[in-house]
Each structure stands twice: as structure tokens, then as C-alpha cells.
Amino acid sequence: MTSSLPFLALSMGLLSSFHCLGMCGPIALALPVYGGSSLRQIVGILTYNSGRALTYALLGMLMGSLAATITWIGYFRYLSIGAGILILLNVIYFSKMERLTMTPVMAQRLVSCIKISMGNMLRKKNPIGWFLLGSLNGLLPCGMVYLALVSSVATGGSFAGSLFMFWFGVGTMPMMIGIGFFKQYITPLVRARVKRLIPAMLAIAGLWLIIRGITIEYPKSQDGNLPVCHSPSDSIGEK
Q: Does residue 10 sit in helix, strand or coil?
């Protein structure tokens, strides 16, 4: 089941890019690389999107570390099942759950600071500025990113969680790269048709998390019991 993680992450990223095109699309089109040489455009777009993917990977590492801690204390099963149920609830009650994923009032000031910094990065005309712009864009609130992070907890480790979110970021790249070159073909009708697939993909992700939680097996010692550590004094007493 672990081998399906890259495909799941890529699919979620690809479909979510159609969902988030309204917010991320204008930023991608505002990159100061269009109008130059083709090489400059390609380098700029790839650099910008690499920054986004790196931010997603770092967020996935944090979620994976949390999952690893919960796995260590033996409650990973419930974390995975709970995450799956949360995603399924989002599919069934999208309008109500969307309110829960809105940015809290206390965090809106931080988001405003991020947007101001992004505005400053848009004035840069070098790869470092483009990379930082993409990195900051990855911090903007997005319901689909939140759901991908929820899915990443099922990886059970910091590296695996980071890899899951990196592949999610890679999945968003085709749309973010193509919007600058093929925007005339990405009509509202095309976006609407593709967005219909998002609930199905989220339902698959939710069911995958639930099944993974149910079928997970914790390591046991040879006698079937959890190993018990003895203190040095116990060993001396036995001698």
C-alpha cells in the first residue's frame, strides 16, 4: 500500500491545481519572466515551482514527524483512521468543512505579511527571488494543501511525509507551468470538468487512510509481548 503513495500524492496535486488556479494562477502569470527568452521563462517557472514544492515538503516533514511520534506511542492507527474520516467528511459536507479550513482571524495578519513579502519578491528579477516567491506561496492558506497534509500523516515518518508532500507539489507543476504557455486552452469549462474529479480522488485518499489504519500491524517481540527494559540494579540482583 505504501507503493501507491507517490501516485496518490501526484494525483491530488494535479487535480488540486485546477481547484486552486484562481488563487495561484495570477501569481504564476505575474512572474517577471514572460516576454524574455524561452530559456529564461523555463528557468524562472521551474525555480518558482521548486520553491513551492520545497515548502510543501517541509510542511510534510512536520506532519510526518508528528505521525512518527504518535506511531511510537501506539496510536497511529487512530490517527490514520481519523484523518481518513475527516477527508470523507470534507467530500460529503464540502461547504461546511470549507469554513473550518478558512484561515483563523489570528493567522490572517501572518498571511498579510506573507503576501507583502511575495509582492517584494515579484519585483526581483533573479532566480533567488523567484525561488523565495514560490517558497512563500507554499505557505498561503489552501484547503487542498491542508487535505494533502492530512493525507501525509499516513506515511508515519518525517522523511516519508516530506516525500509525499514533495510529490504533491510536483503534481501541481504541470498546471502552474502550462498556464503561462497554454492559458488560452485552460477555459472555465475545462476547469469545471476536471474539478468534478476532485471529490472522487479525495474519497479514494480518505478510504486509503482508513484501510491503512485498520490493517496496520505494530512490531512485536518474539513472545508476542512488548519488550520491557530492566534497570542495571535488576541485572545485578539476578547475578
A: helix
Examine the pLDDT at 66 and tell me if it is beyond 60: yes
Work out how many domains the chain is built from and give that number: 1
CA angle 162, 166, 168 (to 5 degrees): 120
Cell numbers found for residue 61: 516533514
Rounded to 5 degrees, φ, ψ at 34 are -75, 145
Residue with cell 472522487: 200
Q: Residue 29 and residue 47: Cα distance in Å, rounded?
A: 14
Instruction: Return the percent helix, strand and coil in the chain, to nearest 5.
Output: 80, 0, 20
* The C-alpha cell that represents 73 in the structure block: 506511542
Q: Which domain covers residue 74, as residue numbers?
A: 2-238
Has this prediction a pTM greater than 0.85? Answer: no
Q: Tell whether the torsion through CA atoms of 59, 64, 67 and 68 is positive or negative.
A: negative
